[in-house]
Amino acid sequence: MKLLFVLEHYHPYIGGAETLFTTLCESLAQNGHEIRVITTRYRPDLPAEEALNGVIVERINCRNRFLFSALALPAVIKWAGWADLVHTTTYNAAFPAWVGAKFRGTKTVITFHEYWGALWNKLPFLSSTAAWVYRAYERFILALPFDNYVAVSNFTALALVRGGVASDRVRRIYNGLDYTRYEGSELQAPDLFTYTYFGRLGVSKGLDLIIPAAAEFRKTYPKSKLRLIIPKGPAGMYRNILAMIDHEGIGEYVELLHELPEAELRSAVNTSSCVLITSYSEGFCFVAAETAAAGIPIISSGRGALVETVSGPHLTMQEMSVPALVQCLTRAYRSEWDETPLKRFPLRESIDQYLEFYAEITA
Question: Of 108-112, 210-214, 263-267, where does mean pLDDT reach its minimum?
Fold first, then answer.
């Protein structure tokens, strides 16, 4: 089988979805399939084309993922004719993948990591115009008639069906984790109560609740600390976070860390009293699955797929509000955790389900 993957990012880009697709592509190559990836050349030192563990990776000279939608088209049209199947993901890789496959008459699969719909109009940090544009683009991608859809959770699968995708064209395949990364990992609870957020600066991540909740929680529990492990981009979003910290007057209370190597990131997370996942929605949430695998307590919003991926010691916010988060922080400070058995999402199982799915739709 010849498979063409059209992805915004690929190895060596670090991220849960990128790890999944890198392992999937390499596993397919090891099983004798011919695999080609078209992705962004997000760093100038990366070669325009190279073979990585049996996978041919072609990088479009483009750091902006929005421009990738247009600049990738010639390469996708060229290689879609070679492929038996074109596989892409939301959002900016979807359009060139669909156009190229349609032009060459090749079957398509798209993995939806999340679908927000009306939520766009309720998110913080977005102007009404920006929310309208993003929601319109999401509807546009959903309206493209891909042959098959993969949803990374039951929540996302249901959202796609509600959005108009026929249920018989949707397959739920959870994202997978390499659990060997967490062997020997254990929580090293700090003396000072430290609650940590780590991840990207997304408008859906509930950072608008975390910072004012930290200011409120500190009044009663001054011997505590908020740790934010975040990138410095997007620059506008990062400025918003700094402005909120300054507005609340908690600059010396917040520990800011950026772009940590994996070993340092794992050490920082493992020395946290708990991890905050206060998202307005999640399509899967690698942070939840990874944190649970490491045995670290979680404070969760319980929104979207978090009911599927959060496990172990945890607390769930009763509503999306600062008081609800402060209430959970107070219970966490007192170690009043709810407990459920660990939910596992083995990477091998995810890959096997993709392989089975490919065999079905190309038969």
Answer: 263-267
Separation CA 2–CA 35 (nearest Å): 6
8 Å CB contact between 250 and 222: no
What counts of helices (H) and strands (E) characterise the chain?
13, 15
Nearest to 287 by CA among 210, 358, 198: 198
Nearest to 20 by CA among 246, 286, 231, 281: 286
DSSP run (H or E) holding 274: strand 274-277
What letter does residue 177 receive in the DSSP assignment? B
Provide the pLDDT for residue 38. Answer: 98
Average pLDDT over residues 180-186: 74
The residue among 32, 35, 49 whose CA lies nearest residue 3 is 35
> What do you get for the CA distance between the two ends of the chain, in Å?
10
Give the CA distances from residue 52 to residues 8, 22, 27, 276, in Å, rounded to whole numbers and listed in that order: 17, 10, 12, 36
Distance CA 9, CA 41 (A): 8
CA–CA dist 217, 326 (Å, integer)? 6
Question: Going by DSSP bridges, is the β-strand pair 107-112/85-89 parallel, antiparallel, or unpaired?
Answer: parallel
| Model confidence band, residue 64 (pLDDT cutoffs 50, 70, 90) | confident
Angle between helices 347-362 and 16-30 (to 10 degrees): 60
> Are 10 and 37 spatial neighbours (Cβ–Cβ below 8 Å)?
yes
pLDDT tens-digit map of 34-49: 999 999 998 899 999 9
> Quick one: tokens of 220?
């009663």
Q: Mark residue 125 as left, alpha or beta (left: phi above 0; alpha: psi -120 to 50; beta: remaining).
A: left
Does pLDDT of 15 surpass 80? no
Contact 220, 329 (CB under 8 A): no
Long-range interactions of 303-307: CB distance < 8 A, separation 24+: 303/279, 304/114, 304/153, 304/155, 304/279, 304/280, 305/152, 305/153, 305/154, 305/155, 305/156, 306/277, 306/279, 306/282, 307/155
Residues found in the chain: 363
Beta strands 85-89 and 2-6: pairing type?
A: parallel
Give long-range contacts, CB 8 A cutoff, 24+ apart: 51-59: 52/11, 52/26, 53/26, 53/29, 54/26, 54/29, 54/30, 55/25, 55/26, 55/29, 57/10, 57/11
Q: Taking 70 as the threshold, does the pLDDT of residue 185 lie above it?
A: no
